[in-house]
Amino acid sequence: MSSPKGTTFDNNTGETMSTIHQSKRRYPADFQQLIHILNGHIPERPTLFEFAMNDRLLGRLSGQEHEDNSQRLAPFQRLINAFAAGGYDYTTISGWRTGTLQFPKGDIAEKSSKSLNSGGMIIDRQSFDNYPWPDPEAGDYELYDDLGPLLPEGMKLIASGNGGLLENVIDLVGFETLSLMTMLDESLTTDIFNAVGSRLLRFYELVSTFDAVGACIINDDWGFKNQTMFSPEMLRRWVFPWHKKMVTALHHARKPAILHSCGQLEAVMDEVIDDMGYDAKHSFEDQITPVEEAYARWGSRIAILGGIDMDFLARSTPDEIRKRSKSMLELGMQYGGYALGSGNSIPDYIPDENYFAMIQARDLIKA
Amino acid sequence: METLLTQLTHLISIGKINAHSPYPPDMRGQPGAAEITAQALAEGFTPADILDKGLLPGMNIIGEKFSQGQAFIANMLISAQAMNAAMEHLRPFFESGEIQSRGTIILGTVQGDLHDIGKNLVKMIMKGDGWDVVDLGTDVHSHDFVEAVKTHPDACVGMSALLTTTMLNMKAVTDSLRDNDPATKIFIGGAPVSAAFAEEIGADGYFRDPYGLARSLRTN
User: Fold this and answer.
1) Which residues in chain A are closer than 8 Å to B65, comparing Cβ atoms?
2) Which of A29, A108, B19, B31 is most buried, by CB atoms within 10 Å?
3) Where are the domains of chain B?
4) So what's the ipTM on this one?
5) Helix (H) and strand (E) counts for chain B?
6) Which residue among B21, B69, B112 places its CB closest to the CB of A111?
7) Given 1.20.1260.10, 1.10.1240.10, 1.20.1250.20, 3.30.1490.20, which CATH number is that of B2-95?
8) Does A111 sit within 8 Å of B165, measured CB to CB?
9) Which pLDDT score, from 0 to 100, does residue B162 have?
10) Residues with Cβ < 8 Å from B177, sequence gap 6 or more?
11) CB B119, CB B139: distance < 8 Å
């Protein structure tokens, strides 16, 4: 079996003992189903994809209302239990949760949303030189090994970093300062992107070596509603080369690479697929490119994951959500390369019953 | 004589701040908006002509390009820097009343929302289009919008939100502003917002980009 781009993954090495009651699942966990999708093929049965879920939902799914932080692995056990109970074939392990590689940040103003302009720690050459750059080798990578035995049979981990290249650089510099810096101090801009990019690359090189890790998400928002945050030329110069290196490193380890990137990316999608070589794209918004349209345009060249719009999930009725999710899943089961999920994540303002209506669509489809 | 104003328009649109600015790279060492504005004043151009026929058309060009997806926020920011450098030379004429603004617009992100990129873009474009801007900042309560309108009774209000949750706060702001003065013009923008939502909450309009707002206010 080969993917549209010729890269084929076979991750069916199977893990270890199950620690969770799975009777709610209609299908046993099988990471190979997601691999089929990432290879652009039709899975043997409908498959779900979610990047992140709110704590209330994790509590309901796992049957453990509150996170237990008394032991190193306990919070991860709850996360794994929740993804397993939801019917997923993997658990996402985000970098913010593991803390494996973290760039020290300034005081970033945050409420429901966060300011992209606050907290900049690097504003000039001197602050760049004085910044406490983290050692990418120093993190607790053994964690990814230790989580393997906690995974139910058939499940894998999907690892992601604590923010992406552009996201971290924006946090370190501030959006407007960075915008001007790209024009007024190209040398410093280059050095900042290289300092962050090289560390993220090393993170993915190391994390992809673990058997329990079946794939990686490279999470890096590039777009606003109307266009990319920076010009495609700027992204090509400072951002995309590092993404290409990260994807190449993952493929070298025989692990698929999933791009999670929000916003209007139409101008650069060909490069995402053909140049960077991503296996899948996650994050879609109805006001930009509805997932049905994205699947029609790019679905034969890259796997499309999730896409049920967050505003739609938040404000529609369960029946409307079930109907749309079922239609999208039917398309995926007909043409391949699609897993059902939200356009971005399940934050706490999405009613639980709406989330459940979305994943119930899986049970309305015949395998 | 006209060429100085034309030159000024070009310098603003490409974001050439002054002779020391390294951007654009192919114009290193050449005079920028600051020097040419000073030269235009010295050669006898009126401050109003420098503003209306030199500087503002430059911001209009970059705003239009942004609206059409041919320019990016970084281009807008560097043009705004060039505009600010030029305006330093015109500031005394504003203070003496020789140059009048088009009006006042009050801006802010709604309560709970700290994402200010869009709001700041609107601020840049509106200032560049000759408006006085009262920037209430981020996470602004409806009470503060109303108080600002009481201080500036003829002002328009522009508010933005990034999220589905925070955009719902626009309704409360709109209701409070209408209670204070039904005639206040209210405009909204932001990622989850649409023309239909503007109509739903009783706002006067939705704009996808800041230049759309500036163009609409100029023609209405």
Assistant:
1) none
2) A29
3) 2-95, 104-219
4) 0.81
5) 11, 5
6) B112
7) 1.10.1240.10
8) no
9) 80
10) B142, B145, B146, B149, B157, B184, B186
11) no
